[in-house]
Amino acid sequence: xxxSAPADWYLNSPLVVGTGxxxxxxxxxxxxxxAGNTYTSGSAFMANNDSRTSTGLWQASRVNPTLPxxxxxxxxxALILDLSGSVDNYVGTLKDAAxxxxxxxxxxxxxxxxxxxxxxxxxxxxxxxxxxxxxAIDQGNNLDTIKNRIDAxxxxxxxxxxxGIWQVAASSTDxxxxxxxxxxxxxxxxxxxxxPGDSTQFAQVEQxxxxxxxxxxxxxxxxxxxxxxxxxxxxxxxxxxxxxVGHVTGQxxxxxxxxxxxxxxxxxxxxxIAKGATCQAxxxxxxxxxxxxxxxxxxxxxxxxxxxxxxxxxxxxPAEQTTGSEGSASWTVKFGTPHPQTPAxxxxxxxxxxxxxxxxxxxxxxCTLNGKAVSVLKPTATVNVTSGDALKCTFNNVQTLVPDxxxxxxxxxxxxxxxDGDEVASGTSVTWKYLVTNTGQTALTDIAVADDQVGNAxxxxxxxxxxxxxxxxxxxxxxxxx
Length: 482
What we know:
By secondary structure, this protein is α+β, with helices and mostly antiparallel strands. Helices cover 14% and strands 31% of the residues. The protein folds into 3 domains: 65-277, von Willebrand factor, type A domain (Rossmann fold, 3-Layer(aba) Sandwich), CATH 3.40.50; 280-399, Sandwich (Immunoglobulin-like); 405-477, no CATH class. The protein has helices spanning 91-105, 142-151, 161-169, 202-217, 236-241, 266-277, and strands at 9-10, 15-17, 21-23, 61-62, 76-82, 111-117, 132-136, 177-182, 221-227, 258-261, 280-290, 298-299, 305-310, 314-315, 320-322, 328-334, 344-351, 360-369, 372-374, 380-385, 390-399, 405-413, 416-418, 429-438, 450-451, 455-456, 469-477. α1 packs antiparallel against α2 (142-151) and α3 (161-169) runs parallel beside α4 (202-217). It is elongated, with a radius of gyration of 35 Å. It starts with 8 loop residues before the first strand and ends in a 5-residue tail after the last strand.
């Protein structure tokens, strides 16, 4: 068993073998060691032993290189996609996430190459499984070309991490960043592929580590993204081919080496990796409203205005944005390095404007940073962000409408209004008219006019919209007062 590694290397024990069992990476040389005997790995030990079958070459991993400390020229990125048969039920999600990552790199001056693997690598030489060389995303129609190539991919076969990674190391293109997305442990290695096909041995992991070491030796940072239930357990194998830092929810992914995520979050993870690698943080606002008389929040839709500011980096423009039909607004903060020393304090606030006249007010703000809830105050949410962060805030507004009514009473003799001061003989029959106006902020229902001197008035209807009026009437005799 290895107990230490040289500088710039790290050890891997345990590793995950079989169908998900964690196994210490250590080997017995036999019941006894006899003087004068030579014990050779691959025969006397580290040999055939079910899931512990080894190549006979002791593995250790190179420390993962860091990303270039530049942000102006963009990155050269290799996207390595697992197209094995187990991905079949989620291939649409995989494609959407991969395309979303390319979209997140757009505008950064970066380039992307596509690599695939299943039992071998590439999965095949056809359009639904082949590799594609690097293209500059921002040139011509390359963005659409890359996404169309991703859309053409199909799945089938077992899983060979080794060849998937090795083909990138063997490429003539120098890459700053390589991202392997896989949903299962390696069950094959080498070319031609060998291995159990339905479980994992030390040998398949060792070969993958050797290939990852070759890629790291070229200065390429290697990230491993394990997605789905098959890689939700011990991350030892993901760690072995990438680096020692696992991603923690709520933290920027820019410093992480390996990730474990459900399929539902894969798009967010890959987008965050892309934004962080190109020195960006994303800011998103969602508008939710609860209208007067309703019990549930709903998408706020268009017409809501928000402002953003940032103490560091460069905030995308305009700083004030008005939501469209989707009820959202978004910004990007661009930093000068993937690892800024000082975070940016991003402040978000709502400009109510005419909405306040309609009874709307800000009820609450809820924010998450990289998927983890953070505490904010209203009316302005302020959160520190750094490269690779994804800040999402929901502004919740409620509508409080105050009802009000105005009634003006007049007296009439036929078609002639009786003015103040006019004399009317006692016993004269007078028509009383009541001009009823809804002067509040909400519709009125069940309206009835009752006069303690005359009795109930007759009204043409019982409901009034905001600002609407109606005239009610009643008839009664004038009685002289003492």
